[in-house]
Amino acid sequence: MAYLLDDEDMKKRAKKYIDAIIVGQEEDGWICPCSKEERDRYDMWALFLILKVLVVYYECSKDERVEEVIYNATKNFDRHIDTFTIFNWASTRWYEMLIPIYWLYEKRKEDWLVNLSIKVRAQGFDYKYLYENWPYENPSSFGQWSQMSHVVNQAMAVKSLTLFSRISKNDEDKKFSEMMIQKLHDFHGTATGIFTGDECLSGDSPIQGTELCSVAEFMYSLEHLIQITGDVKWSDQLEYIAYNALPAAISPDMWSHQYDQLVNQVECSKIEEGKQPFRTNNGEAHLFGLESHFGCCTSNFNHGQSLHYLHL
């Protein structure tokens, strides 16, 4: 965002954090903030995130340090998952690691990177099996939280097998997103183009919430579908989300930010615990403010804003 706006102050602030991350990388390539004793139980989702950040930073800044940092971190990860397979968020979001792997492979045509993509796919959660045997036609039960029906995971996973199709060369993988999106819209869709989830898939009622992170991540997934398939229907869908679901959850001055947006919301006030319509979120999740309910959407909304700007 700093580079899109050409804002020198924002660029300096971003570089301060990037510098700290680069300096903090250990000699063996490990870059995540934990001790060596904690590595065996560390969720590698954090690595996927920071490598994607570094890729974007390089594309903006052309900082020559970044390629070597990503190379060493990816090499370390390749060794790490031979012993400690991915789990938790890294398992349900395995496909995100393909993004820095592909970026690196385009710079260094080394076969181990292709093999690493296959290892990550093998260790990651199987969305194809889940959607072919779809158990979520109905909303999640109140209080029931699941990685398998978590709305942000679904929004992110839309691009999963399409990304992997660059390795598999499989048309079924490339088209999997179509079936996935259709099921989400059929059973959990809304008029704004996004599907409900507060936190997990919540049906098609207009009083169920949709997490802002799912909007931003769905837009990001659609961007990758456009890049890989070249199909303009994904551009149309991205535009629809950008002009409907995204502005429903955040305004330019950020003061209409909601963790959960509701298509049919008639009131904006704190709801007594136990009476909120949300499946797992609390009675403040729909309030306007900088950080309502949880901070992930506050950190992630600009992801969608940047995509919208680039798409235009």
UniProtKB/TrEMBL annotation:
GO terms for molecular function: hydrolase activity. Pfam families: Beta-AFase-like_GH127_cat. Keywords: Hydrolase. Residues 2-300 form the Non-reducing end beta-L-arabinofuranosidase-like GH127 catalytic domain. This is Glycoside hydrolase family 127 protein. It comes from Metabacillus elymi. The lineage of its organism: Bacteria, Bacillati, Bacillota, Bacilli, Bacillales.
